[in-house]
Amino acid sequence: MTAPHQESVVAELRAAGCVFAEDEAALLTAAASSPDDLNALVAQRISGIPLEHLLGWTDFRGLRVAVAPGVFVPRQRTGFLVEQAVERGRIGTGSGRVVVDMCCGCGALGLAVATELAAYGIAVELAASDIEPAAVACARRNLEPLGARVYRGDLFTPLPGDLTGRIDILLANTPYVPTAMIPRMPPEARDHEPRSALDGGSDGLDIARRVAAAAPSWLAPGGHVLVEASGTQAPVAAEIFARQGLTPTVAHAEELDATVVIGTRPVPDRCARQSGNLPR
């Protein structure tokens, strides 16, 4: 498409209230195969369809990640969860880590963590799961080139038993929007992303509670489960982890308005191991 086409698109998007009209116009213009195609893309964007669903991809931590209609689009602030996971994945012995991307959506978090740990010479055995069929199909496109296994089902249910007690990093991007707040969400999310990826129950932490309850038996000693939460939810989420015997940590990135709550499975002390009094 030519510059005049793009200028016209900018004007249409700006009139429709798109905050990043120039950037979106450039992407839509590049994606269009003809003027008619461009007009159709712009009309769909103005109607509220997420830009990423129209393009078929999103940029997440420098990676082009495939997305599709009906699949949750990873938020840029969730890159902070990836940073926290990589920081912890770099610590420890051995040259490999077992990583699970739960509530994986398109698999962006697992893809980013595996890619970034690989840059430090750390191999990753990666698995992922989601309850939504469209998300599973999309995650397989993104993760199977890494040799990852992607399962469809509810949280831990579809995971193979050989992961029990072996997971070093559990990325659990659980939904955390309180049910009553769903109607107030932007239409892009509310109308075009699966409810299961958004609705966290009455206080937004229902799914986090379920993850925390099961995580200790799946994590390796010293392994970590990471969830995203709002700033006001974080103390409650930390207490949820603590009640399950996990050591909680709260990390916040002010510039991203991102909060991550980490639960770490304690490593049995040497005396307990020698006496046989291992925690169960």
Automatic annotation (TrEMBL):
User: Catalysed reaction per UniProt?
Assistant: L-glutaminyl-[peptide chain release factor] + S-adenosyl-L-methionine = N(5)-methyl-L-glutaminyl-[peptide chain release factor] + S-adenosyl-L-homocysteine + H(+)
Keyword Lipoprotein listed? The answer is no
Which GO terms of type biological process are on file?
methylation
Q: Tell me the Pfam families matching this sequence.
A: MTS
EC annotation from Swiss-Prot or TrEMBL? 2.1.1.297
Question: Which residue ranges does the record assign to the Methyltransferase small domain?
Answer: 81-176
Out of the domains of life, which is the source?
Bacteria
Protein's UniProt keywords contain Zinc: no
The record's annotation in InterPro entries points to:
HemK-like, MeTrfrase_put, N5-glutamine_MTase, SAM-dependent_MTases_sf, Small_mtfrase_dom
The alphabetical list of record keywords is: Methyltransferase, S-adenosyl-L-methionine, Transferase
* GO MF annotation list: peptide chain release factor N(5)-glutamine methyltransferase activity
Question: What is the protein name stated in its UniProt record?
Answer: peptide chain release factor N(5)-glutamine methyltransferase
Q: Which organism is it from?
A: Nocardia mexicana
Its lineage reads:
Bacteria, Bacillati, Actinomycetota, Actinomycetes, Mycobacteriales
